[in-house]
């Protein structure tokens, strides 16, 4: 265990806090000051010792596990791993490792990649059989030979394919957001757009407001960049504005990263009154709002967008196509005020030169021809039917929602700690997404994210009820 004689972690250093903490433990393990089998402090104890967030500790421990220095033992904690020189090991047949319920953002994503979508109520995307491969193949075929060859032998425009940006400008206008092609930058998916914003707008030690619950990937990325997270409770109508105002006054945040429409994980959307008050707070406390509209195609067109109300003055709008087209194409974009785009474009160039001109032109065709709009409408109708079925199954088995579900996700209350229930469900073949994964402080609780498209099997709900009853029976005094 690290002792109080250690110097404090440096918040203004170029290396993120999680990396500094991981390196301290790694050094002591290499020097044999922490021997194999030694137990490290719990996440919360370690956070208290070093004055950092629990999420920073999770990120540090994750780095140590990736380096082969730690192992996580279920319901026991983190332990120094026994290591031996490779030459002394006797080769053994490879055996499949037992699956473990997700304990952080990385584990959740790995589980989603490995999982069978039909048995993954915790999946973060639509299952493959809901998408339209014919639409994609048709778009690629419609590129004429000369056009296709020209796109394939060039890097393309650093800002993104010109036709795609023109089509995106029209898409945004349909949402009430007025942004010309010159105000749009294409990216390798919405996550890449968010990463560009983190790298251009923030420095280690800066404070950022985030939704709580919110998307674990964003928490992990910000923490790795050395950013201080300011969790804002998220309710059915949007963020808790009183809490947000108090945090903004005390910490002077640079950004607020939020999903106003079909929020992940709750499915809630921001109402108009809350949106207006939020924009006033951004003006009062001088912070930028990053509006992640990744699920926008699954929402009704009348739902208000912050960027439409603000005119891209304090709001940067981010979206993409992986949720409705295919994750494989990795086409996303952002729209922002002109003065912000130069730095964002420079970082995109340094990061990977340009994005794929062929994929971007194919998406432009999907937009221009109206086929993507029709596909999105079919998805919305199918999701509405799925939500009705899932809601009926939840009610039948005695579960309640934190608020009426909408879009792809619902925020389900199962009545017991969802981290405890995740492993027995996984042992039976069902991947779930416990609520603690969506908490900036990894706060345990009885909520879990439910994917409406992958939670239609009554067998899952019967097992969920049985597991919840079993855990409740073991924790209820006789």
Automatic annotation (TrEMBL):
Residues 15-83 form the HTH gntR-type domain. Residues 369-396 form a coiled coil. SMART domains: HTH_GNTR. The keyword Transcription regulation applies. One of its GO terms (molecular function) is transaminase activity. Signal peptide: none annotated. Keywords: Aminotransferase, Coiled coil, DNA-binding, Pyridoxal phosphate, Transcription, Transcription regulation, Transferase. It holds the Pfam family Aminotran_1_2. It comes from the Bacteria. In the C-terminal section; belongs to the class-I pyridoxal-phosphate-dependent aminotransferase family. PANTHER family: HTH-TYPE TRANSCRIPTIONAL REGULATORY PROTEIN GABR, TRANSCRIPTIONAL REGULATORY PROTEIN. This is PLP-dependent aminotransferase family protein.
